[in-house]
Every structure is written in structure tokens, then in C-alpha cells.
Amino acid sequence: MLDLYFVSVIAFFIILGLVIFADRKKIEIKSYVIFMRRTKRFRILIDEIAQFWPGFWKTIGTFGIIVCFLYMLLGTGFLINSSYNIAAGLVDKPTISLVLPTPFSQASIGPGYMSFPFWSWFLIILMILIPHELSHGILSRTEKIKLKSVGLLLLVLSPIALFITGLYGLIAGALTLESLMVALFLILPGAFVEPDEKQLKKAKTITRLRVFAGGSAANIFVGLTVFMITAFILWPAMISPGVDIFYVNQSSPASNAGLTNGTIITHINNIPVSVSYCEYNNGGINAFLPYMCKSGSGYFVEEIGQAKIGDNIQMRSDEKTYDILVKAVEVDGIEYPFVGILYKPIIKNGDPGFLFSLISFMSLLWIFSFAVAIFNILPIYPLDGGLMVETIIERFNKKSAKKIARAISLIVLLILLYNFFGPLLM
Length: 426
Prior knowledge:
With 426 residues, this protein is of the alpha+beta class. It folds into two domains: 4-228 and 358-425, no CATH class; 250-339, Pdz3 Domain (Roll). The protein has helices spanning 4-22, 41-52, 54-87, 118-142, 158-172, 177-184, 197-202, 205-238, 253-256, 277-280, 282-288, 300-305, 353-376, 384-396, 401-425; strands at 27-30, 34-39, 98-102, 108-110, 113-117, 147-156, 187-195, 239-248, 263-265, 267-268, 271-272, 312-316, 321-325, 327-331, 334-338, 341-347.
């Protein structure tokens, strides 16, 4: 049967190829894999936005510096901690993953990569790139730094990816059609804003920091905004009160109390409960917004999370009350409270439909926005974080700033690579 999703992706790349061919005289090719198209059109728009409210942009830029340094510490700390866990044998898979497009409609996960359906991936990348580069441009012009050019680019990694995928697949015996398709379509869109480097180099420290931090700060602000809309507007609009118990461990305290699959719990200890967005997306929130996942009273995870070994929990449905004695379960020599259930939210009208698809897309958007921002703000040259670190060091030791910044960059880069390749090689 013809896969229309796959055909739509093929059609897109055929059209893209024809556009590139028709515009080939204006396209610059670098290092055989980078296709760049410079334009002056967007510079006028950037100038107008920057001139509309320059004081506002400078304030936002200053706040962005603080935010970026905080997330730089968060990201670097995560890499160091993960490296320790890998070395100690506590982690056997890469702690960071490449996020790649696949021409198929189903997502997949493998060692060191996650592939998402092309159109979702493509839209998310655009919604990350546009505010990132626009913010760099706006803050450059707000600070009176000239823009040499603005443009779009394509990073064509297909030949390299096919070679690496084929080689790894043959060695590991894990070569699949899906992995080959992911490699074949590894053509990454991008954008760039090119400030005048000489003018930027002579600018004040605060000016340079605002420009360098602008892109990642914009991604963080967009990610936070999308999170707030998703968690506090879209999620409550989709969820009904109560939780649906869809699995009960047969030897668990919950089973002993009479709970069965399909039971709808409305209260815990006489407190009405429902499922929060934090429970739905716990991993992403803990990674990027660790202090935003305190759901508060009235959510299932908070109420049951307070239980200790030996406590009695009273769960109530519309038909019955269940008295559950919390027991202990041992994991790696440590005892944890154990109830023995898995649960899910109750969807209004029984069918999530478009709203659930929108929440899934918005969740990916804010998570990837934070992920790209944190990666870009790591103290690795020539990423924005590396440029920020070099700028700060220059403030105190201009003569040795470049050497110190490059040393820091090399150390963090090696830690980053260890997080990816370490578990694969061990």
C-alpha cells in the first residue's frame, strides 16, 4: 500500500531540489555540505523591529544573559554528572541523543538518537530557528552593530550519515531500512544572521553578551511560553477529574484491596484528584524546568507521593472505597513505598482528538526549544556559550582569554562526546 506520508516527504525534497537548481547562481556552497543563500530582504524587517522599542530589547537582552549563564551551568553540570554515572557503570546508554527526521509517520528511538516524523520535526525546527536568529539580529541592530548578511542554509549530511550508519550497522549487526532512511534524509535546515565581526569585537562587554545570548534566550522564552500555554490552558481543557487505573499488579497492596483494571479513582483520602501535566510530561519538566513540576494538592501524583511504608491510603471511586496498606519494594538494596498501579488521565468525551495531538506537538516544541538553547549555550567554541565565556574572560585577562576559553571548550566538548560515545563503546 502506498505510504502517502512518505510520498509527501519525497515530493517536498524534489521541489526543494528544483528550487535550489533554479536559484543556483545565488547559492554559495561551503565544505561540500553547506548550501547558503544570502539575502538583504530580512535586514529591513530586523531594523524596523529593533528601532521600534530599543530600550525594551536591551532590557530583555540583559535578562537573557543571566538566564543563559544559569542554563549554561545547568547543562554543564548535567554533562559532568552523567559522565560520572557512565564511568561508574550506572548508565549503559547515551545520556544525550541526536533528534533526527524520518520520512515515516511513526517516531522511533535507538542508541543515541530519536527520530520523529519529518513534518513535525520540520515545523519544530522552523519555530526554533526563526526566533533564535531573529533575536540575534534584533539585538545586534539595537546595539548599532551592522548586519553583513541574513540568510538560509541547508546542511546536507546524507552521504556522511549513510556511510556511518552502514558501517555501524554492519559491525553491530543492526542495519535496518528505517535507519538508512533516517540517514538518507539527514538534510538539516538552518538560518543565520551575520553581524559585522570587527564592529562586534570592539563593542562593550555587555553589548557582546547581549548579542551572543540573544538566540538561546529567545528559545528559552519561547519554550517557557509554550509550556505555560500547554500546562495551564490546553491540558486542563482536555482532562476530566479522576484517574483511570489501567494496570494493577496482582501481588500488590492495590490488588489486595480489591482494585482492578479500569477502576476510576475520584478521591484519595477524601481529596478529589486528577492527573496533572507534570505527571504526563515528568521527564521533560524535571530536565528543563525542575521547579515547575510541583503540582500541588489535588493531583494524583502529589497525594499518593506523600505515602510512606506502612501508611494506609483510602482511594474512592463512585461505587466503592478501597483501603490500601502501603508496603515496601526493594530496588538495588533500597526500600521504596509500593502500591502497585499504573494510571492515566481521563479524557473529556473519551476522545482526545485534535487537542491531544496539539498538546503532543506543543510538548515537543518547548522541550526541543530548551534542548537547543542549552546545547547552544554550552561553553564550547564557536557556540554562543563559548563566545560568552571568552567575552567574560577578556574582561579580566585579554591577553590569555582565547587560550583559556579554548581550553574550557575542549574539556566540555570531550565530556559531551563521552556522554554520547562512552556507553556505546563500553
